[in-house]
Amino acid sequence: MASISSTSPDKSPKGTIDTPIIPLLSAINNHPSFFTTSSCSGRISIFSHPPGTPKGGSWAFISHEPADPTTLLHLLFPPEPPSGPTRAESTQPESAELLFRFEPMILAVECWDVGSAHFLVSLAISCGFRESGITSVGGKRVIVAIRCSIRLEVPLGCVGEVLVSREYLRFLVGIANDKMGQNWKRIQEFMEGLRRNGFSEGSVGVEDRKGGVGDENGGVVGEEDFFEDVSQVKSMHLVTENDASAVTAKSQLCGYSILRL
Fold it and tell me: GO molecular function terms here (predicted)?
């Protein structure tokens, strides 16, 4: 299994793991009962999407850190004459929709058994990732999705005509940056929860693992693959805050260590 610190590109358009969550991924992958299959630390983006098509499109802007509003203003309201291609020369048609998005961390983890999966879900929920749940328990794989619902998606118009003002764009960037801060706080709390339960950030090779095997590129695959995978979320078994006691009980029955918050 390729190391998280490998310089080889992964399957994502970015080609690398998001730096902010490398310690978190290392801690999870260093445990013999877990390995990550895909991840995104959270991102602010402007996505250009052709109308009437379920897939396709491209990023006009993407950042895994708080965004600079000035950069986005120059992107959507370029000075005259434009230094780059005009909208008419853009690779996207003028009818392509522009969407401003904030997406929080999303993480897929394969678990050794149902008990370890319930443990991870319970910890994630307690740290603010309240949309976390077990996506699959059939066959030989037990997969957990760790995520929350603080996302933001706002239409800006289309490539040929931006329909929002500069002031409104600044307002959106401010909201997205605040959400990025909330996202990072939850990630830190999740990391601390793992440490309290004996996880560490040391490295581990595939020969040391007791669990299953990851994908051919080392278990940490592209974020786009994951966002496509979680389209199965309609069939996800979500463990809510009301199920917290049941989760703990199930973890005990499966012989897994009790969560220490």
Answer: methyltransferase activity
